[in-house]
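Title: Prediction job returns without error message
Component: structure pipeline
Severity: low
Priority: P3
Assignee: unassigned

Description:
Job completed but the reporter wants confirmation the result is attached to the right record. Sequence as submitted:
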Amino acid sequence: MAVVVTAIFTPKEGLHDEVVAALRPSIAEVHQEPGCLLYAIHEASDGRIVMIEKWQNVELLDAHAVGDPVKRLSSRLQSLLREPVEVTRLVPLPTGTHQGRL
């Protein structure tokens, strides 16, 4: 079953653009990983950056979580964030047509 993930990044004051720049190289890398169905960054109105992910299954998500792209990203973000990344795993509850699920 597919797994949806949100990862919320809270930049330190004045470092928003640096956080976005640190995230960008990861996008293409992660898109190549087995099981990656969606991996996209969005900006919240409060300045936080939200990664929305969708993975084919939990096993492939778990492999991603310990993989080299995540390790490189964590290293790039090390001094840029005000607080730890807030990661939430979500299990879809599909309702209605295809519009009722990611």
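Comment from assignee: result matches the submitted record. The beta strands are 3-9, 36-43, 49-55, 86-90.
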